[in-house]
Hints:
- The chain has 7 helices and 12 strands.
- By secondary structure, the protein is an alpha/beta fold.
- The protein has a single domain, classed as Ribonuclease Z/Hydroxyacylglutathione hydrolase-like (Metallo-beta-lactamase, Chain A, 4-Layer Sandwich).
Amino acid sequence: MTAGNRDSAHEPGEWSEGVRPYAPLSTLKPVAEGIWWVDGPVAKMSYGPVTLPFPTRMVIVRLRSGGLWLWSPTAPTPELFAELDALGRVEHLVSPNRFHYAAIPAWKARYPHATVWASPGVRERARSQKLDVPFDADLQDGAPEAWANDLEQLIFRGSRFVEEVVFFHKGSATLILADMVMALEPERVQPRFRWLLALGATMWPGQTPFEVQVTSWGRKSQARACYQRMLGWQPRQVLVAHGRCYLDDAVVQLERAFAWLR
């Protein structure tokens, strides 16, 4: 999840530099009433000298106001713009953590009226990567008035590596996680990458990546408190940015994925 994210286009269903993404891409996929996900292009993420591919995913919520809330926007296409324009007015562009921001400028250019929300550390990260991202406001532990009726949120603290803002869609009881849980399916990853991704604790059935776990040493009590708050929302399903979502037995799956906090 380190150095710069770079998206690369591919034909649906084909391997894209080591990963078979979740086709069809860049189109709305309904989750429940008022919430959709979109599978995006493959991103490349560097771990020192090694570059690994990851599938990407964004989430769209239609707020009670009728406006659209876009979480972790992936690289847009004209067709995706058209789908969203038919759905409602894009009002919020949300970076959930410091690694999920690279496509936001393209969305802001298309929707200049939308508010761009910064997660902890993302402003510094974007500057270090020499990317001009027009952030307008900062996410806090509590939801802002704009979406407080629709979503819960908290900053998942503890790791020195990344602090992520996690969200809960009340209407569908859906938890939305970016990198706090990864669940890459082995059959979608070419063998030459599987062992590295497994070492990083990013493979199905999914867990918190190893670098988040180890950088929480000495601060696990903070992480555990955040986890307990998150579990208290009693999610029925979990959407993740990278890999297979938990659409059944969400609480059981989360208890297994966060077993390192026991």
